[in-house]
Design brief:
Number of domains: 1
Structural class: alpha+beta
CATH superfamily: Nucleoside diphosphate kinase-like domain
CATH architecture: 2-Layer Sandwich
Order of helices and strands: EHHEHHEHHEH
Radius of gyration: 14 Å
Oligomer: single chain
Largest sheet: 4 strands, antiparallel
Strand order of the largest sheet: 2-3-1-4
Number of helices: 7
Shape: globular
Bound molecules: inosine-5'-diphosphate, magnesium ion
Amino acid sequence: MATNRTFTMIKPDAVENNYIGGILKMINEAGFRIVAMKYTKLSAEAAGTFYEVHKERPFYGELVSYMSSGPIVAAILEKENAVADFRTLIGATDPTKADEGTIRKTYAKSIAANAVHGSDSDENAQIEGDFYFSKLERY
Ligand code: IDP
Ligand code: MG
């Protein structure tokens, strides 16, 4: 299990607002190396599968329709302690509760449209990275 890797998506709101560059700059400046990256769009079905762990939560339908509403940037990132350090960099799920200097405080609009995804465990980082990328797409 690759404990030094995490998985992220720049979500549709942030792509639409032209924040891809700003967010990648913050990611690079925080010391993450890009292992894999693609600009793509989730179908509703794919978004439903990706977020299957949240199926029972009241916002699942909203989340799936939002995440399939426009293109996203998916990436695997590498750094020592990647999962935890990336969660610190992105900040709280609700941007009004996120610390100053975090990606969500800087770029997120709302608790739903919160600019970026970050894996919550090494196991999920592996599963989520595998959802998007083959072995040949990682460098
Ligand atoms: P996380 O992205 O900070 O790990 P999770 O609890 O895993 O937060 O929720 C996954 C995603 O679901 C969030 O990033 C956000 O887009 C959406 N979400 C979470 N809570 C709410 C809510 O109360 N209303 C609407 N969307 C939500
Ligand atoms: Mg989560």
